[in-house]
Design goal:
Elements (H helix, E strand, L loop, with lengths): L7 E5 L16 H9 L7 H15 L7 E5 L26 H13 L2 H10 L4 H35 L2 H21 L4 H14 L11 H17 L13 H14 L10 H8 L14 E4 L2 E4 L6 E3 L5 E3 L13 H12 L8 E4 L2 E4 L4 E2 L12 E2 L1
Antiparallel strand pairs: 1-2, 3-4, 5-6, 7-8, 9-10
Helix pairs in contact: 1-2, 4-5, 6-7, 8-10
Length: 380
């Protein structure tokens, strides 16, 4: 049979010249195979007839082989369409917290306390939740600073509105209070800040440095060194002089606290930062032979036969026997030579002269006569 239209497929139960088996069941082997494979959803007809061919060959012990004839295109042709599968969004296996991380990034862009509260409510547990709580607390801690800045700005605006005569009067009053504070000898930083608050209410300073009185400015190094000593970053005496040792102490504080204060001069900002630390910042450094014990250094005691090594640990000490130096006494040298000569050589002969006594060398002997004033060995 020849196809009369395109996209036509003709399937034969057996090849030309052979007979198709009817089988022993309700359907023939070929029909049973078609019923099994053709209704499969999404299965192309060519593959379905190929599976049917394999089943027929198996059922008839290779006596019957179906054949397919026709012409189809490259697209799959299925009698039953494949079901539509909704693919869920793919989450990267390497980042299981992708959704919460993106939500955290959006909340960080806004940065308000209300947004952080909403994030914590939706994600009550996890690492990003801890970060969100820290960001929320940070926003709350910054609020007083913002209010103080706004208050300072309002005070500056009010100063601009004052008449020139009122400004002069306020400046004169400010100078009077500063002179009175100096005459009273009140140089503590607390009193200075209190008085400066009164002066600022009268006439705010035009320069940032005017906010520090002369007595406070000269006292900052001593106060800063005292605080550096408290947190373990300064070990020298507190003399109120900002020298190289003081600069090194502030540098140690910067290194261990993560700050970047200028070590060349003592400042109020550095003093406030050091005062905010309630615990030791710089580690306790002890000399060789001592170890850190709380806030002090204690001597390292080793048991008998052990001493403190280069790495400050107890190591076994090797005792060396003293080297005995030869005596310079001629009598002692002669006694030692005679003692050594007391051990006879194989020949049994001893040679003695002004330098002492010694065994006759191996292979040598002493004659029965004397050469001049000395005795000589005869060897070989």
């Amino acid at each position: 049979m020849e196809p009369t239209s395109p996209n036509t497929l003709i399937a034969f139960a057996a090849k030309a010249g052979s007979t198709a088996s009817d089988g022993d069941g309700k359907n023939s082997p070929f029909t049973a195979a078609l019923v099994k494979h053709l209704p499969k959803p999404g299965l192309d007809l060519r593959r379905a007839f190929g599976f049917a061919r394999d089943d027929v060959l198996k059922a008839t012990n290779n006596r019957q082989e179906p054949y397919v004839y026709g012409s189809l295109g490259g697209d799959d042709v299925a009698l039953v369409p494949a079901p539509t599968v909704v693919t869920p969004p793919v989450t990267s296996a390497s980042d299981p917290d992708l959704a919460i991380r993106r939500a955290y990034e959006f909340a960080e862009r806004v940065g308000t306390r209300a947004v952080w509260d909403s994030f914590i409510k939706n994600y009550p547990f996890g690492f990003y939740t801890d970060l969100a709580r820290a960001q929320r607390d940070k926003v709350g801690a910054d609020m007083p600073s913002v209010a103080l800045a706004e208050k300072s700005k309002a005070s500056a605006d009010e100063q601009k509105r004052l008449a020139p005569e009122e400004v002069k009067t306020a400046e004169a009053e400010r100078a009077r209070i500063a002179s009175q504070a100096k005459s009273e000898g009140d140089t503590t930083i607390v009193a200075d800040k209190a008085k400066l608050g009164q002066l600022a209410a009268l006439a705010p300073p035009q320069q940032p440095g005017d906010a520090i009185s002369k007595s406070s400015a000269t006292d900052i190094p001593r106060l800063l060194l005292a605080e550096l000593l408290r947190v373990g970053c300064h070990t020298s005496a507190i003399d109120g002089i900002w020298n190289t040792a003081a600069q090194r102490s502030l540098g140690l504080f910067n290194k261990n606290a993560g700050t970047k204060f200028d070590v060349k001069a003592a400042s109020f900002d550095a003093l406030d930062a050091v005062r905010s630390k309630t615990e030791r910042i710089c580690p306790l450094i002890c000399e060789h032979g001592y170890k850190a014990d709380g806030e002090s250094c204690t001597k390292i005691n080793c048991r008998a036969g052990y001493g403190v090594g280069d790495d400050n640990t107890c190591e076994k000490v090797e005792t060396k026997k003293p080297n005995r130096k030869p005596s310079s006494n001629p009598k002692s040298q002669r006694a030692a030579s005679e003692s050594a000569a007391a051990k006879p050589a194989e020949s049994g002969q001893i040679l003695c002269n002004q330098g002492g006594c010694r065994p006759v060398k191996r292979g040598c002997r002493l004659p029965n006569y004397i050469y001049g004033n000395s005795v000589r060995e005869i060897c070989n």
